[in-house]
Design brief:
mainly alpha, 342 residues, globular, single chain
Amino acid sequence: MSTITPDTPSVQSRNVHGFFCVEVGMLFFVVQDAMMKSLLETYPVWMLICIRSVVALLVLVPLIMVLRGRNRLLTPLWPLHLLRAGLFALGFSLFYAAFPFMGLAEVTTIFFSAPLITALLASLMLKETIGPHRIAALVVGFVGVVIAMNPVSDAFTWVSVLPLLCAFAYALGQILARFIGDRDTTLTLGLYTLAPAAPLILMMGWSLNQIVDVGPAFHHLRWAFPAEALGDLPRLFLLGAVGMAGYLLISRAYQVANASFVAPFDYTYLPFAVVLAYVLWSEVPPATTLIGMGLIILSGLYLGYRELQAMRHRDEHPLVAETAFVPGSPLTPQSVDEESPL
């Protein structure tokens, strides 16, 4: 039996395949968030997240039924999935609620503190050991978060905390995913994370509007379904399709290529967001955002590197989505032995 090494052409071609998948997937996610930012001028966040979940349902159910294998529509782990869906709905309602008040690069930079929060929660909740190197990386990363938020600036408002709360909710979802492990596939996890988010997000939106009088400044949080939505259905469904395509592409990248090769490219979302925001809205992130972004990226990459090194020493299979922290993505760590859904 021949042995495949990292230098063999087959592995190299799979890494090239993974590179293109993750880069195109990241571009799709940036485009999705740019579409969300534009659509929030007309539609409430509850409606947009609900439509995105409906599109995911229309895509994932037939896909699971056709592919079968380990993919399943019914899972005994549904309570964990439902809790994760609630965190997903709550977190990204907070994330997108900040869009009208902050630049795309500013919001997403703060959100990318999620890998740092996950590492901290894993230490506290899962009793995972964090050595001095990782502690130093976490400190650097959280310093980057503080710099990006710039709480001493006159421009700082409580809205700046919303993407950080989203990152915390997302990190809790990743901790739940550790309990699920590889007992469910990426497609099943995506279905159970995205589909229940539709009714959950609608309940959240209705409840908020019963408790709080939503003023004009927060029109994107109102409980309303504008009449023009019927004529705008193609663009609304395109929003869901773009996000679903990004999810499937990134899932594919982690299934065909080495995690240690693919993971660093997750962070290309941030420069993509900076460029697209400048092209569409002439947004130029402040220097504090760029400095914080750099520190968060360096910290996240180093944490990922240390995790991969630890796995190799333990002679374990690497996790294939360990650092896949992308706005709107329900990706979770999965085993490299998981059957490819595509």
